Amino acid sequence: MTIPWMYYFNVLLIPLVFGYLTAANYNHSFKPRGNSYGWFMFYILLDGVILGFQKLFHSKRLFMTDTWEYAAIAQLVCFLTMVLVLVLPRTPLKKILPHWVKKEEANKADADKAQDKKKDNKEKKENNAFRIIWMLFFLVVYIAFLVLFFGMRWYEQTFDVDFDAFLFTINSPAKGTGSDIVNEALMMIIPPIILMMPLYTASVIAAEKRKDEYTLMVFGRHLSAKGFRRVARGITVFLIILFAIFFMVILKLPEYLASRSRMSTIYEENYVNPNKVKLTSETEKPRNLIFIVMESMETTYASKDMGGVNSINYIDKMCQLADENISFSNTDKLGGFMSVNGTGWTMGATIGFTSGVPFAFPVGQNSMGKYESFAGGLTTFGDLFEKKGYNLEAIFGTDAAFAGTQDYFTQHGNYKVFDLDDFSDRGYVEQDFYEWWGVRDQIVYMALQDEVMELAKDDKPFAVTMFTMDTHATYGYECPICEHKYKSKTGNVLSCAQDQVTEFIRWCKLQPWYDNTTIVVIGDHPRMDSQLIGGLDPHDRRVYNCIINSAKQPAGETKNRTFTTLDLFPTIISAMGYDIPGNMLGLGTDMLSGQPTLAEKYGLDWLNDQLAMKSDYYVRHFY
Span 129-148, mean pLDDT? Predict the structure, then answer.
């Protein structure tokens, strides 16, 4: 049972809270009606406690819950009680709650009143400048709170990533980011702020101009204006701290800090340096590779009977592709690999499946083109196959500068990078063309065909890597060739994506170079929004993998295997016909060899914990 209306109740209370607190903090003579303010603050505090318990101990969605119905009911009861208290007649209320309010003495001398009024006027004049500054300050705090509140709300609804992925993203250049992502974030943040400003302003004015004869009682004592301001500021601090806790929990900061405070020796004990491994091949000539990395392609999209979580099989053709070729699974149905710590976003995953180690560079170092060398000490697929005389190329429908991708590929293998600008320069699109994240996958596949045909003319072997983008969160991009078969936009995008990749593979099989070419199709990481994933946590979902026309057949089982992004690195090299002494490269294990992976030896939880920890070896050797 999901109760989203409680979220809107809380959203409406935000401007009222800040309006009251603004007036209370800067207005020396502000005396709100005790019963209204008392019950109002009581509701806010209790509501905050309920929400805190929901977030910290159960729910993954702020202000909503599936199984804590009683928490939402408690919130509603508090809210309705507060409303009833505000509309009840004063006399009955005073009898019900005699200790909360007290009427000012009716016989207070007129002279005293005049004196108080004169004193108040003097204080207003003396503190007018201070009040304006304080009000402006509080207005800035209020707007900042709303930006963070709605930004956090959008982030939680849109993405479910670890804190390392969040840090990498905010340190990446904005250039290359999908326009729809930016627009959606702005539309989630700006309109609510604009709509809530009048309510905030009205709350400030109403609170400042109240002339009630009731004052707040705390433990049986009247609260002076100065004391009241202290209480208001205390509540302000409490709300800010409460929000900060929500913010940290949503970003999984506590887990991140806890893991980074510990030291791992996983690299000293298990890392195999690819530079020290001699790769040999018995094939007549080096084998080509076409490596297609599909954005957010996970096996969860399949129907339940095939191994997914949906009633409809949105990737039926990819299921068939996996069934007819080599595809490793964590179950006896369609499954895949797990994105371990440091591989849960595209750049992290790319480092993982091309080097056998996750992204674990400290934020601000060795990333996004800020430094001369991107992971200069790391040995990758590109480094190995550049030495073997391969023509290497990476094709993106986006700006390859995003997240330092271009630097990574050019510095590790001297890849030819074909990205957004090349599509217009080569006549695939018009100048300044831009949709979704750059160029839609339909056009990228056209370029891939042309580039492969050109590379095949050379006597050298080639390895081409292509990244798709249409299936990126949020929802995905419906291009002109997408069929609207399903009610779900994401379902239509996935169906279109599988049509394009299977059609490309069919085309490859008709080409003269196909017999000597291995094709690998994988997803990069689990989906980052909540579409078609059945509410599962990223750690409970698996990413698609399929090897077509492999030079080797599996020596062991392909089903019920426990493996990760890191194991793809040696597995792809092995599928190209190369023998790997020890069957390991980096932290990855060749799945075709049948040898147990690190996740199978020590457990997936152990591996994830080790990769999340700090490593001196990583720092010393991979920078």
Answer: 68
- Number of other CB atoms surrounding residue 370 within 10 Å: 13
> Does position 54 have pLDDT exceeding 70, yes or no?
no
Last residue of a domain, one of 259, 287, 321: 259
Question: What tokens does 173 get?
Answer: 């250049």
Helix-helix angle 128-158:5-26, to 10 degrees: 160
Question: Do 204 and 347 sit in the same domain of this protein?
Answer: no
pLDDT of residue 57: 46
Which range marks the domain in which residue 26 is found? 5-107+114-259
Q: pLDDT (tens digit, 9 = 90+) per residue, 82-126? A: 555 444 444 343 444 334 334 444 444 455 555 666 566 655 555
Domain count, the chain: 2
Bridging pattern class, strands 462-467 and 391-396: parallel
How far is Cα 47 from Cα 557, in angstroms, rounded to an integer?
A: 53
What separation in angstroms does the CA of 74 have from each of 51, 58, 88, 238? 11, 16, 21, 21
Please tell me whether residues 322 and 250 are part of one structural domain. no
pLDDT higher than 90, residue 221: no
Q: What is the 3-state secondary structure (H, E, C) of 257-317?
A: HHHHCCECCHHHHHCECHHHCCCEECCCCCCEEEEEEECCCEHHHCEHHHCCCECCCCCHH
- Among 459-463, 536-540, 553-557, which stretch is predicted with the lowest mean pLDDT? 536-540
CA distances from residue 112 to 32, 116, 118, 444 in whole angstroms, order as listed? 21, 6, 10, 82
User: Which has the closest alpha carbon to 38: 277, 283, 216, 198?
Assistant: 216
Q: Which two tokens stand for residue 572?
A: 């792809």
CA dihedral 546, 549, 553, 554 (to 10 degrees): -10
| SS3 call for 519 | strand
Q: Tell whether 376 is covered by a domain.
A: yes
User: 292 is written with which tokens?
Assistant: 């297609």
CA dihedral 585, 589, 594, 599 (to 10 degrees): 160
The angle formed by the CA atoms of residues 287, 296 and 151, to the nearest 5 degrees, is: 145
- Residue 395 has φ and ψ, to the nearest 5°, of -120, 130
Domain boundary among 231, 259, 287: 259
Q: Average pLDDT, whole number, for the chain?
A: 77
Helices (H), 457-567: 489-509
pLDDT digits (tens, 9 = 90+) for 296-345: 999 999 999 999 999 999 999 999 999 999 999 999 999 999 999 889 88
> Whole-prediction pTM value?
0.72
Question: Does one domain contain both 308 and 404?
Answer: yes
Angle among Cα 513, 518, 523 to the nearest 5 degrees reads 130
CB 299 within 8 A of CB 506: no
| pLDDT at res. 181 | 54
Is the same domain home to 491 and 424? yes
How far apart CA 570 and CA 597 sit, in angstroms, is 11
Q: Bridge partners of 518?
A: 289
Residue in this structure with the two tokens 């690819």, named with its chain if needed: 274
Q: Which of 376, 427, 370 is nearest to 404 (CA)?
A: 370
**What is the rounded distance in angstroms from the CA atom of residue 595 to the CA atom of residue 578?**
16
